[in-house]
Amino acid sequence: MEGEKMGIYVITGGSKGIGEKTVDLLRSHGHKTINIDIDGGDINADLGTPEGRAEAISQVHVLCPDGLDGLVCNHGIAGIPRFKLSYVLSVNYFGAVKIIEGLFDLLKMKSGKCVATVSGAIAYATRGRYYVDELLTNCGDEERICRLVDTFPLCEDGEIIYFSSKIALANWVRRIAPSWAAQGVNVNAVAPGAVATTIMHNFKRPVAESYYYPMPAMFKQGWTMDPADVAQALAFLVMPGAGGISGAILFCDTGSAALINPDKQL
Ligand SMILES: NC(=O)c1ccc[n+]([C@@H]2O[C@H](COP(=O)([O-])OP(=O)(O)OC[C@H]3O[C@@H](n4cnc5c(N)ncnc54)[C@H](O)[C@@H]3O)[C@@H](O)[C@H]2O)c1
Fold first, then answer.
1. Which residues, at least 6 apart from 55, have a Cβ–Cβ distance to it below 8 Å?
2. How far apart are CA 235 and CA 204, in angstroms?
3. Would you call 12 helix, strand, or coil by DSSP?
4. What's the pTM value of the predicted model, to 2 decimals?
5. Dihedral of CA 142/148/150/156: which sign?
6. Is the C-beta atom of 119 inside 6 A of ligand 1?
7. Which of 63, 69, 99, 117 is the most buried (most CB within 10 A)?
8. Which domain holds residue 121?
9. 2 in a domain, yes or no?
10. Do 132 and 207 meet the contact criterion of CB atoms below 8 Å apart?
11. How does pLDDT run across 233-242, given as a tens digit for each residue?
12. Ligand 1 in contact with 74 (CB < 6 A)?
């Protein structure tokens, strides 16, 4: 875009789906992007492991010694039996928190902005004994929590662990936002509803039938959002125009969270 200052942005999970559209969008504004992904990234790393995270953080420091304008922490997985429950937490929660913390110094150098992709269902997920978001938020010990969740019965499908990881990530963003903003770094979250990407194949129920994803705007039409809709929200929050926004959870879900929870902001 004419007159816009070109920046350098890191996107995690930028090879497919929402992340790929975010890469396209940032590039269309003339920005440089670095995609960290387990598959097909500019940096290939498994963010579900400490070694993968360390490698990715170290490579970004080599590539961007003068700092980062933005970080879109978007990677994620869902569902069992494809993945161990603990791996879902390690990828979605610990993988996001550790990458964001590990790149904070580079964001601070340029007063950069950070956004994490959470889930619109955080606003209305039913809570029960296998939810571990409080443990993630209040204890935060990856090894111990992962050991615990792998003792959980698999009859409860992995959606509970998936939603736990996303609730905890949204809470983490809210908690760190004030102190990071005081250091010049904005951090927010985008909470999508049902988006037509491969991650949805790992949920047990077809999206159109799922009670987790009511679609008031297009009810009963089997409609899911386009990944480009969510990419717009993510890119907006890391680009220069969003200077004053920090600690926000932006629902990008065609009004589902508002329909279910009209009196609650989170
Ligand atoms: N699709 C939806 O309906 C929906 C709804 C709410 C939230 N989200 C969130 O949006 C984000 C993007 O999901 P999507 O729908 O585009 O799914 P997707 O499966 O199309 O993309 C996920 C990306 O993350 C990468 N990834 C997965 N595991 C990784 C790992 N261990 N290390 C590094 N990269 C890894 C994948 O390779 C892929 O490129 C996720 O955080 C997801 O939880 C999606």
1. 43, 45
2. 30
3. strand
4. 0.94
5. negative
6. yes
7. 117
8. 8-260
9. no
10. no
11. 999 999 999 9
12. yes
